[in-house]
Structure formats: structure tokens, C-alpha cells
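Z., the sequence and structure:
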Amino acid sequence: MSWLNKRTYNLLQNKIKDLFYLPRADRKVLFGFSLSVTIITVCSLLYLSGRHKNEARLLTEAERQQYQALCLKADSSGRRSNPIRRSRPTYGKHPRYYAVAEQTKASFPFDPNTADSTQLLALGFAPWQVRNIYKYRAKGGRFHRKEDLRKIYGMTGELLDHLLPLVRIAPKYRYLETSQADSAFKRFPTYRSNKFTQKTLVDLNTADTALLKRIPGIGDGFAIMIVRRREQLGGYISVEQLREIEHLPDSLRSWFVVKQTDGLRKININTATLKELKRHPYLNFYQCRIILEHRRKYGPLKSLNDLSLYEEFSAKDMDRLAPYFRFE
């Protein structure tokens, strides 16, 4: 057992050696690269430390006195240019308070659509408000009325009361003045419906979608479904066939009538192909196959009674199919 453990240890040790083994040429290249990086790093640090020592030097006494004189002169000139009386500072836990000079607002007529930044600042707008006004105008925004100043972010009641009497909107920026009757007509135009107001009977076999949409409760969807079903059947023979259209309300059947059935499109059951038979909604695939098999075995059909022997054709199917087949 110990011999096996020793052998496993030797194999693992050899694998590790092979993993980290580098040829002699590669070791030389790696050693040269490491040495170059070390030399470059040391030289860079020595250069930067020597440069810092050259740049950082102490001021001489004459330079220090000249610097102090310049600071005192700048402090005294700043106090003269800004004669704001400071209150006596308080010490301890309370902070120091300073008096702030009250900014006076200018009063002159202006147009917010064309006023420049100097005029807006003089009127009392904050710098950030002026920038917002410029951005609003750059994007195509305009002030059409005096009350539009309320849209400016940060507008206060005091500033608005001061600016409203001064606003002068140019005529090209104002809304066109229209009478109240015209504006009401433009906003709420009268809609004249073309729906039938009285009970009107519509022939299912001749009505198009435009006539069907005049019936209250029928829109584009129901009109298209009614016409599509008529094309699939070959024509309606009864109003009750509308029950086969999904989601069509039963109350709509009172608006329809079937006046003409002579124009029904009938299928010649003895010559129709499988594809033609499958198009009719009253026939499924298995019934179509039976019709074709019966024709192949027994010849042309003479009437629908020939199909009554098959269980796929019920009495209900025979009644529905009779008006749509012809035997030639």
C-alpha cells in the first residue's frame, strides 16, 4: 500500500514539474525581461524624486515678505469693492451670520422670446433659470402669453408679480384670435352618422361591406366576416346561417333577410376535386374522401341519397348540403 502511495506521489510531482518547466532559452528571455523592467522602474523613481527635490524649494525671506504684502493689498482692495457690513461673529455652538446685500430688480418692458441673458438677469432671473429659458427657446419653445412664465421652473409668486406687468409679447408669437363659436366648432366638430335610424331589412346575398356597416352594431370586423362567410358558402339561404359566425350578436339577425337564392354558387359533386370540395365549410376532409371513393367505385352520384348510407353524413349534413350541390 505504501509503495502505491509513493508511486502516486512521484507521478504527481513529475506532472507539476512538467507544468512549470521552461526551456533554457525561454528562461534566459524571461530573466532578461524581468531585469529590464526592474532597471527601468528604479531609474524612473530616481528621476522623479530628483525632479521633485529641484522643484520644491523654500522661499527666501524677501520673497516671503513680498508675498505677504500682495495678500494684504488684495484683501484691502476686496473690502473696498464690496462694502457689505458684516455682523459681529458669535462664538461657541452658534454659527457665524453675515449680512447679504439685497439685489434690486430692474423694471423695463421685455419679451421673453427675444430677451438676452443680461436683460433676464437684471430683471431678477437666476442664472440657472436663464439657461433653462435659452434651452427652451433653442428647442422651439415659445412664450405665447404672459401667463406662460409660470412654466419656468423655480418661478416664485413674488418674481411673477414683478414680471407680469413688464411682459410684452410680439405679435408673431401670439395665438391667432378667433371667435368662441369658431373655436368650439374646431375643437368639437359635429359628427354625422350614416347608420340606419329606422329598422331596414338588408339582403344578405347582395349587401356589400359599406351597406352592412350602416346597420347599428356592425363595424368593419363584422361586415368583413359576413361577406367572407357568404363567399365560402356560395350564398346564404337563410338568416339563421348567421349563427355560424362567432361573436355576432343574435339581435342583428332582425336587420337581415334573404330575398334571392337563384344566384347561389353550386358545386358539381361529380366533377369537383378534393381541393374544391374542402373549400366548402359544410364538408370536412373525411366526407370529401368518401365522395371521391364513391365516385371511383360506383360512378357519378345521382342525388344526396347515395351518401346517406355512410355514417359520416348525418341528416343535418344532408339538409345543409342539398342547396349547394348539383349533379351533372
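The mean pLDDT is 81. The beta strands are 202-203, 256-257, 267-268, 325-326.

Let me know what you think.
H.
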